[in-house]
């Protein structure tokens, strides 16, 4: 299972906290994590192996959208900060649109992400699934 992780600055701590609750599941060899640059650095410091792409404002969201469009992702978790402005808002919108175009599950807050992760945990073989 390939999972993309993205968090706006105000949500990066939430992302690390969220992932820490699923350490065992995420350390399975079948699970591959990808993240935008700064989010990835935070995740790495928390002890996860993650492939870091460009920082969001420099094209990282677009890179993840490209992976989603090519069906290279199974799930996108994007903790957005709705109370802040983002210079690359068009890229953010594009990523969410591409997920919808290609029917890629997209969680934009911890409550939704937790539901998806709990679902995956309760049906173990799905952590191994590939699109
Ligand atoms: O800006 C982002 C998402 O739109 C996240 O990018 P960073 O992980 O590089 O901060």
UniProtKB/TrEMBL annotation:
Residue ranges annotated for the MGS-like domain, each copy included: 1-131
UniProt entry keywords in alphabetical sequence: Lyase
Reactions performed catalytically: dihydroxyacetone phosphate = methylglyoxal + phosphate
EC number: 4.2.3.3
UniProt-listed Pfam families: MGS
InterPro entries associated with the record: Methylgl_synth, Methylglyoxal_synth_AS, MGS-like_dom, MGS-like_dom_sf
Presence of keyword Lyase: yes
Binding-site residues, substrate: 8, 12, 36-39, 55-56, 88
Gene Ontology MF terms: methylglyoxal synthase activity
Gene3D superfamilies recorded: Methylglyoxal synthase-like domain
Residue positions of the active site: 61
NCBIfam families: MGSA (TIGR00160), PRK05234.1 (NF003559)
UniProt record similarity statement: Belongs to the methylglyoxal synthase family.
Function: Catalyzes the formation of methylglyoxal from dihydroxyacetone phosphate.
Record's protein name: Methylglyoxal synthase
Organism per entry: Belliella kenyensis
């Amino acid at each position: 299972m390939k999972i993309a992780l993205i968090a706006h600055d105000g949500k990066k701590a939430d992302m690390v906290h969220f992932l820490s609750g699923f350490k065992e599941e995420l350390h399975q060899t079948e699970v591959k994590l990808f993240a935008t640059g700064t989010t990835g650095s935070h995740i790495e410091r928390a002890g996860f192996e993650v492939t870091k792409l460009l920082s969001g404002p420099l094209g990282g969201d677009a890179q993840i959208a490209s992976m989603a469009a090519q069906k290279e992702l199974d799930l996108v978790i994007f903790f957005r900060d709705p109370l802040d402005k983002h210079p690359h808002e068009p890229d953010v919108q594009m990523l969410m649109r591409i997920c919808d175009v290609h029917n890629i599950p997209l969680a934009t807050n911890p409550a939704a992400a937790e539901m998806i992760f709990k679902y995956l945990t309760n049906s173990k073989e799905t952590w191994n699934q590939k699109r």
